[in-house]
Each structure stands twice: as structure tokens, then as C-alpha cells.
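Give me C-alpha cells for this 224-residue protein.
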Amino acid sequence: MVKVKFLGHAAFLIEGSKKILIDPFLTGNPKAAVKPEDVEADLILITHAHGDHIGDAAEIARRTGAKIVAMYDIANYLVESEGGITTIGMNYGPTEVDGVKIVQVPAWHSSSDGKYGIGNAAGYIIKLDEKTIYHAGDTFVFRDMELFAELYGPIDVALLPIGGHFTMGIREAAKAVEFLKPRKVVPMHYNTWPPISADPEEFRKLVGDKAEVVVLEPGETLEL
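Here you go.
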């Protein structure tokens, strides 16, 4: 069994034979379900260099020994700026880390540390214990998502932003569901702050029968 736990904003913990933490923005996150010191991980995946996605990655990696997987430029930046961590820098394409198959895929978004642009934004397709999870990162909808479904599907669950302003809104995310054809979809990156306010029930209605929409509150878990 694979468990997908929503930690708030765009942070998730995927638990199976490995524990995979994605975009662990916990400190300063008003919706965070846990504290950084309470999280265990084998791998930490970072979609891009904005603070609400890198978050507490380095701190958690130092404490747990987790390997950080990120765009090559971001991985190098973290080693130079943080130290005491192990990173695996990659670029768009497939790899395998400690038995976990990972595909880093494009995302339409900026990437920086607040001052300098670092790398490119990405999403991840993860295959763990015969389950396939797509974390879109921060992105707008784009038709290449159809290719993700063709190459790596069927996707068991897609984790998609719906908050708008910085990412897809509800309408665009519903179109992404059409392209990706996931069995289930979990909305994320909404209602953390006023600019990204969105109603997940509106998203559910727009998706209709194209996929099962599972709305998770921070701290709740979806079992696959």
C-alpha cells in the first residue's frame, strides 16, 4: 500500500517501501500539518527554488540523511549554500534513486531563491510500489501533459495546483485532468493565502466523472 499524505500548500509525504517528501515548506506555512522535526524521509524532491517549495528541505535532509533530488542547478545551489547534505542533481528525464523510479518533467513557472533565478521549474512522476504519482509542481496547464499520460500512465493520482495567480486555476486544472487521465486527483496550492483562494468543490464539479477528486485537508492521507 502507498499512502499520500497532504502536509499543506504543495507539500506531500508519500509512504511505501520508501518515504518521499515533496516540496517541504513547513516553517512559515500557515497550513502546515507537521513541524520539520517531526518528518522522516528517505528522499526529498524539490520542484523549484521558490521558498514555499524548497522550504525546510536542507534541515530535514541533514537530520534524516535523506537525499535531495532537484534540478541540477538547484541541487548545486543547495550544496553550496547549505552544506552537510547529499543532493542528486538531474534534468528533465527519467532516473532511479534507491529503487524509486522518478521522471522529472517540465512545469511552466519561474524558479528562484528570491533574488537569483536558479534552474527551471519541474514536476515529478514517481513510481513506487507499483503506484504512479504525478506532482505537477507550480505550473500552468499545457498539452504536453498528454504525453506524460501516454509515456508513464496510467497515473494513479495527480497532485494539481488549483489556486490561480501563480499557477493553474480551477478551469485550467480541470483541463489538465483531461490530458493526464489520472484515476484520482488531489488539489493543492490553494487557500494558503488570499491571492490563491479557490473552492475545491467547484473543481470537483468541473472535473465531473473524468477522475475521482479527493480533497485532503492538511494532515489527511489518501491510500492507493
